[in-house]
Design brief:
- The structure is a homodimer.
- Chain A is α+β, with helices and mostly antiparallel strands.
- The first copy, chain A, has one domain (16-171, 205-212): Pnp Oxidase, Chain A (Roll).
- Chain A is 20% helix and 35% strand.
- Chain A is built from 5 helices and 11 strands.
- In chain A, strands 1, 2, 3, 4, 5, 6, 7, 8, 9 and 10 form a 10-stranded antiparallel β-sheet that branches.
- In chain A, a hairpin with a 7-residue loop joins strand 5 and strand 6.
- The radius of gyration of chain A is 20 Å and the shape is globular.
- The interface between A and B is large, with 95 and 95 residues.
- Strand 10 of chain A pairs antiparallel with strand 11 (196-197) of chain B, so a sheet runs across the interface.
Chain lengths: 217, 217
């Protein structure tokens, strides 16, 4: 299926022209970001917890170590909402009212279930590491049996999802275009700064290329 | 009150040393970021919606135009969870297991209520604009009466909040420090790129300093 079927929960109702249901377009956003906000309900109270994730095929893996209360709540298999947001720019209009942001955000709904088997956990950990830092997995010590046991991985099938995307310049009221106010977009990007070596790093270990040249998207 | 009293919902239970309850430290994070993820429950289903916000004194204002379903749900005064997350760096350990992120995240719980009066809305819109782009409000056309009516602003008192912060180098297993693997932190920062002028901008309108020199934090 190349597009997600919009559901009551995923259909973009406000500004429907911003809605995206194409699977490839949604996966591209999920693959560029690496932080999600997981929403779940405990005793009627909503919680929103930031955590890392990775996608492999049509599954979203959530790193379960974010908070014990998330683990407790989700390992029973409860409804979650996972949102991933990339801010691409500040949209500066001529009126305060029409200021906006350019962004790409994905919302996924479903039931997360724990990955129990060691092989499945290993695949998910590989996906996490390579998602955040491609090239890293081959260089580091792999997870021990004990570390695998201490890791909780949740799997969420990518079956109900949509994205919302805003691009382009501000949209102002006709009569405001003549105002002598600078208007346009200030693009924003999450960029890597100079790597900071661990104080305990032995002399002579060079910064790998995949760290020096790190770039998302 | 200079510190938030930890509650059942805000106490950082996993890795309690990362918990921050100091009001000034929490406000500093809220003032550096500008995107939040709002969690709320409709018919038992959690929703997590990204939207802009601003803080003024001990109130968090949420821009209500994010989604009509959020407005419908929240204008009745329901429990929300607002999470703000800044990613400061990728923590590269010698083992896959100990990879982490440096981050600062704030969680706020409470009940959001709509700001109904025009003066209150005006204050909130001023706060939004100046929070995202300091210096902007004075230059642009202010909101008309009609625009104020079309704007929904939600206010959430900052009375129940906590932050979770990770800083510093990776923490590896003792026996792994001898591995010839580069380890350390790759700092990440949301940085402004070259401003892109609106195609309809009249000639001769210069990019303002507050745009050219834009920087968060």
């Amino acid at each position: 299926m190349n597009s997600f079927q919009p559901t009551e929960r995923t259909q973009v109702k406000r500004l429907p022209k911003r809605g995206v249901y194409d699977r490839a377009a949604i996966y591209k956003i999920l693959d560029e970001a690496f932080l999600c906000h997981v929403g779940f309900v405990v005793d009627g109270q909503p919680y929103v917890i930031p955590t890392g994730y990775a996608r492999a095929e049509d599954t979203l893996y959530i790193h379960g170590s974010a908070a014990s209360r998330m683990l407790r709540a989700l390992s029973g298999g409860v409804a979650v909402s996972v949102t991933v947001t990339l801010v691409d720019g500040l949209v500066l209009a001529r009126s305060a009212f029409h200021h906006s942001m350019n962004y790409r955000s994905v919302m996924v709904f479903g039931t997360a279930t724990p990955v129990e088997d060691a092989a499945g956990k290993m695949r998910a950990l590989h996906a996490f590491t390579e998602h955040v830092m491609p090239g890293r997995w081959e260089e580091v010590r792999g997870p021990s049996e004990q570390e695998l046991k201490a890791t909780l991985v949740l799997a969420l099938p990518l079956s109900e999802a949509s994205a919302k995307v805003r691009v382009g310049p501000p949209v102002d009221e006709d009569e405001d275009y003549a105002l002598p106010v600078w208007a346009g977009v200030l693009p924003l990007q999450l960029t890597a700064q100079e790597p900071v070596a661990d104080p305990r790093l032995p002399a002579g270990v060079a910064v790998p290329d995949y760290v020096r040249k790190y770039k998302r998207g």
